[in-house]
Amino acid sequence: MFQYFPTNYVWNLSVNIALTCGAKIGEIDQICKPLIEVSKQGDDTGTTQFFKSWVEKADSMVKRAEDDLRRGRTLGAGALFNRAWIYYLVAERMQSPDYPERQGAYDKMVDTFAKAVEYAQLPVESVEIPYEGTSFPALFIPAEGVNGPARTMIFCNGLDSMKEMLFGTGIAHEFARRGISTLIVDQPGTGGAIRRRGLHGRYDSEVWAGAAVDYLQTRRDVDGDKIGMMGVSLGGYFAPRAVAFEKRLKLCAVWGANYNWGELQKRRLQREGENPVPHYWQHVQWVFGKDSLEEFMAWAPNMTLEGVVDKISVPFLVTHGEDDKQIPMEFATPQYENAVNSSFREFHLFTIDEGGSAHAGADNEAIGASFIPDWVNEHL
Fold it and tell me: In 3D, which of 275, 136, 152, 158 has the Cα closest to residue 220?
């Protein structure tokens, strides 16, 4: 994984996320150079400076884009908007839930992403998934070259990602090239679902996944009998859990295995393994709607695939990274080994030599963004 900061995994993860989504290395250098010294003080210290540096760059790019629009340079503006939203996202994602400027940065990100879609002419449709009297937001990316209903993959977030970030990986584009549509969801606990709707995460992911299937089956451009699901990072728990119990889903793929996340929290409390974001314990309580660390730790054992993956009867792909510093290998292989009733199962380890070996492929997401769509294309 590219390490801009010499001692800070969490901040380096953010840099790699930005680069994956389309950031430019020169802009990254401008943003991060003033942060090198403070990064050595740990994950949490300096996140305010981190936020300021990323937002200032995004703000300046939005101003330039707006100037381009006044000159009629819509495609140039679209390119600037299409990087500015990345920098807002990275800044916002790294803050504690109660950081006062966080919501404003999120709102700027959503607005800037919408402008990127419009002016950069991105093939994305913003949709709403009806859910328990309200809805959660999603992005629909249509298949290319399909006359009639297309196979479709639901793609869910992990603990701290959001739909725009998953779009930025390019995997939906790769699915589209293979004739497969993608519905990228901000499921409860992530993205706009928690930030704008107050919808907290839950362990029984089949409930909100079922709502996504309900929605897709109303679309005339979707083959309602050929819907699969995949997840990244903690989505490596959510997707298999959903497919095990929501039998309308015909395939499952995970980008980063996550067999027993509840058990992993005990280890993280003992400071074993890297965290994905600063202010980690505040973050997980916010995501899952728990009022204290004690309440969260008592609830966390629900987040396991023990006694679950054997209920998956459809094709099942488990991928993991050889250099994953967040989820150890012992929480990857059982996810494959215990899926004994899958009609076809495969485990693929992304090696350091191959690339994509960091957590959820953060070092080179292009590897997983090609491998997984190829596999899905063969089995859905």
Answer: 152
Contacts of 237 by beta carbon, 8 Å cutoff, 6+ apart = 205, 231, 258, 259, 261, 303, 305
Residue with tokens 């953010």: 14
Q: Which residues pair with 153 in a beta bridge?
A: 182, 228
Reduced to 3 states (helix: H, G, I; strand: E, B; else coil), residue 338 is coil
pLDDT, tens digit (0-9, with 9 covering 90-100), for 195-233: 999 999 999 999 999 999 999 999 999 999 999 999 999
Question: Are 82 and 139 found together in one domain?
Answer: no
Compute the radius of gyration of the chain from its Cα atoms.
Answer: 20
Contact (Cβ atoms closer than 8 angstroms) between residue 47 and residue 95: yes
> 109 lies in which domain range?
9-119
Rounded alpha-carbon distances, angstroms, from residue 78 to 1, 173, 304? 29, 18, 42
Q: Assess whether pLDDT exceeds 80 at residue 42.
A: no
Q: What is the pTM of this model?
A: 0.95
Q: Does residue 304 sit within a domain?
A: yes
Amino acid at 167: F
Who's near 364: CB < 8 A, 6+ residues apart? Answer: 355, 356, 358
Distance between CA atoms of residues 32 and 50, nearest Å: 8
Q: Does residue 362 share a domain with residue 315?
A: yes
The closest alpha carbon to 229, from 220, 238, 218, 221, belongs to 238
- Residue 207 CA to residue 199 CA, distance in Å, equals 13
CA distance 182 to 152: 5
Per-residue pLDDT band for 279 (boundaries 50, 70, 90) equals confident
Residue 4 within a domain = no
Copy the structure tokens of residue 170.
């390019």
Alpha carbons 342 and 312: distance in angstroms, whole number: 5
Residue 330, SS3 per DSSP:
helix
